[in-house]
Amino acid sequence: MEIFLLAVASIAFLIPILWIATPWFAFADYRLYLAPFLAGSLLLALGLWLFYRSHSDLGTNWSVTLEIREAHGLVTDGVYGRVRHPMYAALLLYGLGQAIVVPNWVAGPVYAVAMVLLCAFRLGPEEALMREHFKSAYDAYASRTKRLIPGVW
Description:
mainly alpha, Four Helix Bundle (Hemerythrin (Met), subunit A), 62% helix, 0% strand
């Protein structure tokens, strides 16, 4: 499942490049207006910033796969002090921004759909892994933070 999800995410990331470089998705183009362009650009920028911050705050604890490394620590500061999965939130924000700013019914939302799938199938197993390794420390952390949206969920 892990390899499948990462493959879907990678392909979804490449679809807009194919949209730019080939006529394959031209059938799904639509006109882009200024307001959605600005809103989507803001979401893209926010997603990139949050991705950078979460990656920076994780340091050597980051891994593309679900694993606990030697000397792995529970990161609870920086953006992780507000939300347990800021990197996933960043990818979802980026996907939403792309869906708004890319004026194509296929290339626009494809990354958002892939990120929703990734989150749906990885959040639970990742939290179970963290809970198993960090035990009550993770439970305490989870009780004071939200999963993806600060103060909401």
